[in-house]
Amino acid sequence: MAVAWLIWPFVLSLTALSANSRTESEALLKFKESLTNTKSLDSWTPDSEPCGGTQRWVGLLCNKNTVFGLQIEKMGLSGNIDVTPLADLPDLRTISIMNNSFSGNIPEFNRLTALKSIYLSGNRFSGNIPSDYFENMVSLKKAWLSNNEFSGLIPLSLATTLPNLMELHLENNQFIGVIPKFNQSTLADVDLSNNRLSGEIPPGLSKFDARIFAGNPGLCGAKLATPCTHTRNRSASISIEGTMKDANKSKYYIAFGTLGVLFIVIIISLVFKKKKKKRRRRRTRRTTEQDSNDDHQIQVTVDGSRTGGERQSKTSRSGELTNKSTADLVMVNKEKGVFALSDLMKAAAHVLGNPGGGSSRPSSSGGVGSAYKAVIASGVTVVVKRVTVMNQVSTDVFDKEIKKLGSLRHMNILPPLAYHFRRDEKLLVFEFVPNLSLLHRLHGDHGEDFQLDWPSRLKIIQGIARGMWYLHEELGFLSLPHGNLKSSNIFLSDDGEPLVSEFGLQRLINPDARSQSLVAYKSPEAERDGIVSAKSDVFSFGVVVLEILTGKFPSQYAGLNRAGGTNLVEWIGSAVEQGGWMDLLHPVVVAAAAADDKASSEEIENVLRIGVRCTREDPDQRPSMTEVIDELTMEDSNDDFITIET
After folding, report:
1. What ranges does the record list as Basic and acidic residues composition bias (predicted)?
2. Is the pTM of this model over 0.70?
């Protein structure tokens, strides 16, 4: 009996623990109760499972039927968020409630100490964030709090207790005071612009561009135009002696002096503006005269056409790149050096042709324009894209758009180096990547030894996803951040990393040429309703994923010779429904799936599922690129589920 009395409290504690624990479904439904305007979450019902196959609840990121991410963005949600139920999701690692209507103080997400990513941007959160808010979130790598109404000091714990912090976005808030001393070597993406910060920029942030501090007039140092002045304490830096009349007199002197300086500045600016207008008119007349001159030509020698020797190079016109303007190249990316149009005109150029050398293979040209390889005198090898479907865009718009694209930096994208503008055709210059494009590697006649194994294919898919995520973030203001994602526009670097090219051109292409030039216009919604969006890019990504898995050339590609392409979306979709999808994969992929390595089999099945979801008929049912990244980079609980390298 004595033993029973000793055991009884323990039994009661177990009973209480069991009663308090919730299933994932119960926890999420309890969390939903704290929100308002939840129509977008109608799929969250007690009679279904959160990660249940094709009926997954909207806004969840799942790994093996377990919720690891909450992504409820742009749903008009509001309310007082109850974080307590989320503590019953042990595998929860990332939360995004961006671009909703939440307000008030920051929710108690710091109770979820295992979080690695937290995205709160684009709401109306306000008030001070406690200095020690992030103290226990030692696993946090990404904190996005931008575009809210936070005030007070930047929480010191962001700088002192997060050793793995990679991304920090605090822009467009009302933070005040000095910036804490961030010393994390992992920091790669920071934005503190448009707050009320003051004082000197700490050394740990001096490596970042000045634009991340813009909109904070009180900041000084680092790369800013405002130097920090360290003044010595003086007992009387300004001596105020005499009567109040003398003090008032000095104020008048200062006021009149300031007005005088402003008047002189205005006069000088008007003179310069007048001179600038005169120079612009002279330049316009000069350009008009030059356009009437004889054509300048870049001689292009097509592989296999050198039999005529020197006479052939002088007389052949089958591959000429003509240019009616003497204006030079505009460099938008100087990482490969600076060169001029004259350097291209002197270079021997070769048309980039078919992967296997035969007409039965899909061509890498087409789409936006013809491609030429040229080696300039400095030794730099470039690809010149000759574009004739952009003749309705002005010089200023073209210059602004291409410079934006040239400024982008990411390990998985290939930005333009330079451009040449003329009314009826444009030249876009890119770095030449010696290795073959993904199109060539997948469909060229290279033999079995040249086949991509499964780890290489998975690495390519993950790299493409990272590059597309970056483009969707940096070019989010475009309806099509890429617009032309296909295997011919993906190149492989020496270490096997993919480089995504030819992105962000939709707004420059003539409206009547877009459907024939851009592969995103082959998505179901574009062909059906003429509507494109970022989800059309996701569809294109899904097609590339299925192409890599099957080794089949997709009929969905625009601007390529189809050579009997397969409708991969219908082909794979029907096979998945019938359970026979394994038979459709490339033999290399099948071999990896059939091996004893269970991890490879699960990886392949996961990637196939992602490809199918990305190519769904309804754009709203396709994942975002953020969600794709989350699902592709899942390994174990110690790894970040959103690993974007910049």
Report:
1. 286-297
2. no
